[in-house]
UniProtKB/TrEMBL annotation:
CDD domains: BCAT_beta_family. It comes from Oncorhynchus tshawytscha. The keyword Cell inner membrane does not apply. SUPFAM superfamilies: D-aminoacid aminotransferase-like PLP-dependent enzymes. This is Branched-chain-amino-acid aminotransferase. The keyword Cell cycle does not apply. Catalyzes the first reaction in the catabolism of the essential branched chain amino acids leucine, isoleucine, and valine. It holds the Pfam family Aminotran_4. Keywords: Amino-acid biosynthesis, Aminotransferase, Branched-chain amino acid biosynthesis, Cytoplasm, Lipid metabolism, Pyridoxal phosphate, Transferase. One of its GO terms (biological process) is lipid metabolic process.
């Protein structure tokens, strides 16, 4: 039994990594060709599952062979979208070390999403340790490549076997692993965006700051309309003034000379509409540490962008996220006009620098890890005095 004496509900019978049950697969799938890897289509040999009930609390975590789930037809996740997920990565460096990048930030965000979805609280450090053990079991699935990684997808479902719209009495938390290359089929090239107020991704008081499947499922229709207009992604707008919020499934950054003539890196603030991205936070921390230009969380509108482009004040625009890391924007279709964003040699200077420095942190573990308040822990254990860690060495 585990209790946490905070203002949050106690973590009764929270999943414990020490109770982990491991069942190894008797067969092993062939590893994929990394040169033709389509994002999220290939999965490793094992998965992690942890069940919860209101009466019994959290059950023992299990690592077992990858396989299908068995769910009741009235499962609340399928009827009322009582579910959420996370996205994180494991990287292999030149010395064959495998690391997770800032996993506790993902756990914090997952816990916030769970609270909003009325799903049970969990011990974040214990879940990180369970995930670490899963990656250790499937360590050979972490690509030996600078351009690929192992994507980790924690998923949390309400499995209430009832058609009543209510807080679930049963839940399932599971984690699957997928070796991935570039998120976009075009690789590391500037993306084109369709900006239209016709569809809205999120609104104040909603769940835009939570990583819930419903936010993404509802965006697919607009995504396909963007493709019909010859664009790859949607630039989500909000309000009558057409505030810029997110780029596809990414956070958005604008590097420009602002209205006052200051060189500035700007991104929309976390006001409940924007997802608090881990890569977003890392970019803000890195660039503030550099101290080379103003770094600001502020509202930006399409009128601001249009004016800045006409006056030649826009330097770069890019999205950020776990899947793509950094993705430059080359063109925006807005109100029938193609707005061309400066893109020197397909990967502009600041985006290129951020991609390199973040990759150095993720893959090569440079001293910059310290610069963003991250730490590496060998032989990590959830009770380590440095917990919660932001960077874990797995082997």
């Amino acid at each position: 039994m585990y209790y946490e004496f905070t203002s949050k509900p106690c973590l009764l019978y929270s999943p414990q990594a020490a109770d982990l049950v491991i069942e190894l697969s008797q067969t092993h799938k062939a590893k994929p060709d990394l040169t033709n890897l389509v994002f999220g289509t290939v999965f490793s040999d094992h998965m992690l599952t942890i069940e919860w009930t209101s009466n019994g609390g959290w059950q023992k975590p299990h690592i077992k062979p990858f396989g299908n789930l068995s769910l009741h037809p009235a499962c609340s996740a399928m009827h009322y979208a009582v579910q959420l997920f996370e996205g994180m990565k494991a990287y292999r460096d030149a010395d064959d070390k495998v690391r997770l990048f800032r996993p506790m930030l993902n756990m914090n965000r997952m816990a916030n999403s769970a609270e909003r979805a009325c799903l049970p609280a969990f011990d974040r450090a214990e879940l990180v340790e369970c995930i670490r053990r899963l990656v250790q079991v499937d360590l050979e699935w972490v690509p030996k490549s600078d351009s690929a990684s192992l994507y980790i997808r924690p998923t949390f479902l309400g499995t209430e076997p009832s058609l009543g719209v209510k807080k679930p009495s049963r839940a399932l938390l599971y984690v699957i692993l997928s070796p991935v290359g570039s998120y976009f089929s075009t690789g590391a090239k500037p993306v084109s965006l369709w900006a239209d107020s016709k569809y809205i991704r999120a609104w104040r008081g909603g769940t835009g700051d939570c990583k819930m499947g419903g936010n993404y499922g509802a965006s697919i229709y607009a995504q396909y309309e963007a493709v019909d207009y010859g664009c790859q992604q949607v630039l989500w707008l909000y309000g009558d003034d057409h505030q810029i919020t997110e780029v596809g499934t990414m956070n958005m950054f604008l590097f420009w000379n602002n209205e006052n003539g200051e060189e500035e890196l700007a991104t929309p603030p976390l006001d409940g509409i924007i997802l608090p991205g881990i890569t977003r936070q890392s970019i803000l921390e890195l660039t503030r540490k550099w101290g080379e230009f103003k770094v600001c969380e502020r509202y930006l509108t399409m009128a601001d962008l249009r004016c800045a482009l006409k006056e030649g004040r826009v330097k770069e625009m890019f999205g950020s996220g776990t899947a793509c890391v950094v993705s430059p924007v080359g063109r925006i279709l807005y109100q029938g006009e193609n707005l061309h964003i400066p893109c020197q040699d397909d990967f502009p200077q600041l985006a290129s620098r951020l991609m390199k420095e973040l990759t150095d942190i993720q893959v090569r573990y440079t001293l910059l890890v310290t610069d963003i308040n991250s730490i590496a822990v060998k032989g990590y254990h959830p009770t380590h005095p440095a917990c919660p860690p932001e960077y874990l060495v797995l082997n």
